[in-house]
Amino acid sequence: MVSAYGGLPGGVAVSHLCVYDWPAADGLRGGTPHMHLACSEGYVVTGGRGAVQTLTTSGYEITPLTPGTVAWFTPGTVHRLVDEDGLRITVLMQNSGLPEAGDAVLTLPPEHLTDPEAYAAATTIPADAPEEEQARIARARRDLALEGYRALRESPEGLPAFHRAAAALVRPRLDAWRERWRHGARAAAEATGEQLDRLAEGDVSHLAEAAVRAERPSRRGKFGMCGRLDVYRAAPWPPG
Q1: What 3-state DSSP class applies to 10?
Q2: Which residues have C-beta within 8 Å of that of residue 130, sequence separation ≥ 6?
Q3: Which one-letter DSSP state was computed for residue 184?
Q4: Which of 8, 3, 15, 6 has the alpha carbon at shortest distance from 231?
Q5: Measuring CA to CA, how many Å separate 171 from each of 94, 107, 116, 174, 231?
Q6: Which of 97, 146, 145, 138 minimizes the C-alpha distance to 222?
């Protein structure tokens, strides 16, 4: 039986992002530097102009972002989006949107990374808070993350310690992440394998199960790490 997986192709998720235009202490406008541990992420630039700053063990880079640019990076890439003129991006995320659903650690100063309660207090935006309060918290955590980010840029030898601290923070959530992967990206890959097996045997019955789906944003203007997000619920999570 071919998997009933019905999410976006390949188990990815999509959101529309308007990058924050809040100025930071260094005079640049933009989002919160952070890192994903198990997911790649891609950008399709749809409007405006800006850049993404990235920091890995290979060094620091700046990638310009203009309409038509497609850029992506793998787990372990610390990234910061910079808005220069109304930067708008369609974001593609692995594993049914896991990067916006838990697989992200902000580059807070070390004292916040070693204490899960302190980290949560500095990063959590209450969903029921007034919009003005959500914006205040989002901007405050952005500025706090920039402090840790600047320290990492000045002393990149601190990256391995940041990697270890980030892994310790997310370890309690790994079982849930694994389930999201099983019901998303792995299920999509297995469905393709089963379809190829059927085609090799001359069985085309799965073609009669063709379907068309469409989604509207399930939430608009969510305060994300890098900006305001329009998000979609287009993947089968939670399962059932």
Answers
A1: helix
A2: none
A3: I
A4: 15
A5: 19, 17, 11, 5, 26
A6: 138
Q: Which two tokens stand for residue 163?
A: 């990697």
Phi/psi region, residue 226 (left: phi>0; alpha: psi -120 to 50; beta: rest), is alpha
Could you read off the pLDDT of 97-111 as tens digits, one per residue?
999 999 999 999 999
- Residue 92 tokens read as 């593609």
| Cross-strand pairs, 44 | 70, 90
Q: Average pLDDT in the 156-175 region?
A: 97
How confident is the model over 109-129, as pLDDT tens digits? 999 999 999 999 999 999 999
Q: Give per-residue burial for 125-160: e unless 16+ CB within 10 Å, then b.
A: eeeeeeeeebbebbeebbebbbebbbebbeebeebe
Left if phi > 0, otherwise alpha if psi is -120 to 50, otherwise beta: which for 58?
alpha
